[in-house]
Amino acid sequence: RMEGFGFYKLPTGTEYRGELWDGMFHGEGELLFPGGSRYRALWVRGVPTQGKYSFADGSGYEGEKWNYCDGYDRRFYTEIVSGFKPPGIPQFTNLGRSGEIPEGCYDCGDGFYDPKTGVIVDYRLRFLRNA
């Protein structure tokens, strides 16, 4: 069985890096997910006892300390860290600008609404839904 410090790659592409004991995650270790997020924890016989999840954008979750995108503050994490962009440069996703919104249309988060057509399309002009 695996013991000591090692790397273990799961079929999903997720990778574990850390201490192993008797074939289980045991001690300090970290799961690295394909999308760029990670979970660092103290493991006891394969079960995390305490840890912190870090999203690919740099924000994190640790127990009750969740301060991101709640009902009182809808800013993206990059806006919290770097501030708002100047007027006229909207931010539609956490990673930055996702597309242009034509004049007279309204942002819907996943695309925009065109009152002339009455439909919502994504930022690549593909149909999403009727308004």
From TrEMBL:
GO CC term, one of those recorded: motile cilium
What subcellular locations does the record give?
A: Cell projection, Cilium, Flagellum
SUPFAM superfamilies, sorted? Histone H3 K4-specific methyltransferase SET7/9 N-terminal domain
Keywords in alphabetical order: Cell projection, Cilium, Flagellum
Leader sequence range is: none
Domain of life of the organism encoding this protein? Eukaryota
Entry protein name: MORN5 protein
What taxonomic classification does the UniProt entry list for its organism?
A: Eukaryota, Metazoa, Chordata, Craniata, Vertebrata
Gene responsible for this protein: Morn5
